[in-house]
Structures are given as C-alpha cells and as structure tokens.
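Lab notebook, bench 4. The sequencing result for the construct came back, and we need a structural model before the next group meeting so we can plan mutations. Quick request posted to the team channel:

Model the 3D structure of this chain.
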Amino acid sequence: MTNQTFNKGDTVKHRAYGTGTVSGSRIGGTEVRVDFGAFSLWLPTRELTYVSQALKVVGAEPKPSQPRSRTSFNAILRMLGADPDEVDDDFDESTPPTTPAIKKASLPTPRFKPARQKRTIHDSTAIEAFRLGIVPQKHLDEWTVGREREVRMLRNFLHDPAEGAILIEGAYGAGKSHLLQIMLAETANHGYATSICGFDPSEATAAFPKKAYRRLVRNFRANLNGKELDFRGFWTEVSNRKNWRDVLGDHWFFAPFLKKLVKNKVDEEYWEYAEARGQPAPNRPTLHDFSTCANLYVNLLTATGQAATEILGMAGFAVLFDEAEVSKNTMYRYQAQRGVNFFRGLVMAANDEPALVEEDTHRVENTTVGIETGLVYSGHNPLRYSHGIPSGLKMAFALTPGSLQDEFHRTRESIPRIELDVLGYDQLRELFGRISDTFAAVYGIQPSPTARDRMFRLLATSDRVSSTRDFIKASTEALDFIRFYPEGNVEDLIIDGQA
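Done. Here's the predicted structure in token form:
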C-alpha cells in the first residue's frame, strides 16, 4: 500500500485499532498521529485507509486546519486529577472551542455565549467530559444509559466465587472503558483494593509484564475503614499487622521488604524499587524486565491479593485491563506470544488453578516452561506463578471482538463474557435529550423541540457516528456550534459529515 496524504481531522481506519481521527503529522506526512479515543498513536500512512474528510460547512473554502481547543481536554484532565498537556505559547484558551466540524473562514464572527453564573460544577464537568466523548467518573451511575443488563452481569460476577476473571467485549467506542470504570467503582464499594491498566501497543506493555505491573502500582487504590490508601499506604498498613508473617513471611519479595518497613528502613529509593521504578541493588530480589518474567509479576499480584484478604480483611484485589487486544499488535511475534502468556497466567491465578502452586518446569527450546500448564517462566527466577490459594484476585479484560477470545477460552472454557452491543435508537434519544438538558443548564441554550428532534435524527443516522463515544462528541459539538453560531445551519454541518 502506497503512502497517502491525510489532513488533520480526517477520519481513517486501521485494520487492528479501528477507526480514528488524524490529529497531527510528521516526517513529511509519511506518519500521522491518530486518536482512537482511549489512546493515540503515530502510524505510517501506508497502514491507514481513508474513511472521510474533516467535517466542514457546505460551501466552505479550503483552509489550513486550525488547532483544536485544548480547553476541554485540560479541564477533564484536571477533573480526573492528571496534569494538563502543554499547549502552544500562542494558543488563546479564551477562543471558542473549535472542532473539525467548524471552518472559521466560512462563518461570521462567533458570538460569545458565556456559561451561566448559576450553573453547577456537576453540570459543567459533565459537558467537559462530553466534549471528549466520555462521561464524568464521579457520576457514572447517572450517565449509564441502556446498560442495565451488563451492570447486573458485572455485579453477579463479583459475587460469584467460582469465577475469577471476566471478558468485556465491544467495538471501539462501544463503552468498554465506561463499563470498566463502573466495575472499578463497584469493587471499591464492595471492599476490594483496585487497580486498572491500559495497554499501549507502541510499548508492547503486555509483552513486558514489569511495565504492566508498574502501571498497576501507580493506579493502586484501597479504602480501608474509610481511609484512602495508595500502594505505599497499603503496604504500610500491612506491615502494622502482626499476622503478616503468617501470610507473607516466606514471600521472595515482600517478606524482606516488610521486614525493613517494620523497622522504618524503607527510604524513597527502596519505595521506588518496590514500585518497579528503581534500579537493581545488592541484597535485594531482582525485578527483571524480560518478556519471560510473567511469573514474577503474577506472583506479586497474588501476594497483594492475599495481603488484602488475609491480612487486612478486605474482599480481595480487583485488577482491570483495558484495550487488552492491542497486546497482539506488536512488532515481533514473540512479543504477542509473551503478552498472551501473561494473560493466561493472570486468568489461571485469579481462578486458583492448583498447577500454579505445584507444577515443575523444564527447558523447551531454551525457554523455561511449566510442565502442566505450558506457561513461560523466568529462567533467572522460575518461581511459581501464584503465592497461594486462594489468591484473592478478580480480573477483568476489556477487548474488541475477535481479538483474544480464543486464547482466553483455551485457558478457561467457563470464563464469562459481557458483549456490548451498540445502544438502540430509543436509548440514544434518551442520551441526547439528557446531554441537551445539561447543555441548557450550563449555557442557557435549548433548541426548539422540532429542531432538537431533527438534530437527533441526523446524528443518530450519520455514517460518521459509529459508536457511543462518537455520538456523545458529535452531539456536544453540534450544540457548541449553535452556541457560537446561532445563525448558522447546524443541519448542513451534520449532513456534510456523512460525505
């Protein structure tokens, strides 16, 4: 496939990652950055297929693309507790937000319509989230539309002791990440320690388990008797309990670490090492960074689950993985195999497979392999995948259909699945109505019932709106258009996007 030329805002498709939007280019246009919603990547243009051009108003003259406003993105990052991205020095955040749907050259000067003084933070943060195609994490239940069956299945899974892992399947933008966030909140409310990790194909995260473990450590949270704990707070609480030696006194990593923690001899450098961020040091167990070391990090997770349940009396440790399918989209075949091996070990550990605490290993083609399970072990440290049974783990994997399902089912035939379908017409109508009402509460702008119904029908049937995420973003962009260009034709803008 030859290189193509793409413009900022164009919709493109990748055979592995799905449909996304071009947000930048480099190397003379031979590579473009594509936003796929939950992640973005620099990709060669030869790997992409053109879907449609950036939205524009009918009759607009071509003009170099304008930088998109970062106001919404930075606001939502602040809401989520992250640091906003850097912006260009000459960028003016007072400028009304622009989207690929708006070409300034063809429109009159926008009218500034400030937010209402009586608006609530609740509604304002919701609008900022909608501009990204998501909903605010603090109000997940309120903004979950048409997913009652799926939420009920999640809750049943949490209360089912027979299953330790679950799959959440759906196309890009269907709501997998949203459902994972619901599960994150549900597990926390039911007394679980929690963590979540997204996979980045450019880093082959799943193929190198230390990277995944580092992210899980960074996102670790636990609520113990009303006290919010991060990774350090959690293990400090564990060290204060007298029974930790009964549970972890023989653990290869946490036993020596806890002994020093009890004596207040864990400094910043040692904490960073325990968090898989520091450098190796003498007289410490080594946290290898090889693709064959899944057994080390699955073992650490099972030890954490046992610490949560048997030492602190919590319900368990819930570990959630988003975008799991990208583990197969790696540069080298062995990386994909190692990623699948890591997932297999996690599923078996969460389901308390006896082989993980019993099996011996042997060498097969210069690789250390479990005799019974076929799992790959570290040749440097072939310790067991699980520290003990029960592990206290609950696992969830969000992935697109047709990616890794066969691998998961070969590992455990009974693994439950939640299949996310696109929202129905009536559900989208309800969602659009609520978005419109919230927009009106913040900006005082409400289309007439006839115009609102017409907007919804156009958005719901647009070829460019192929997912729930797309629908939320498109709805908010259309309302923003009306806010700044009340004399403009929003229907032309939406229709032109179908080209």
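The chain has a mean pLDDT of 85.
Will bring this to the meeting.
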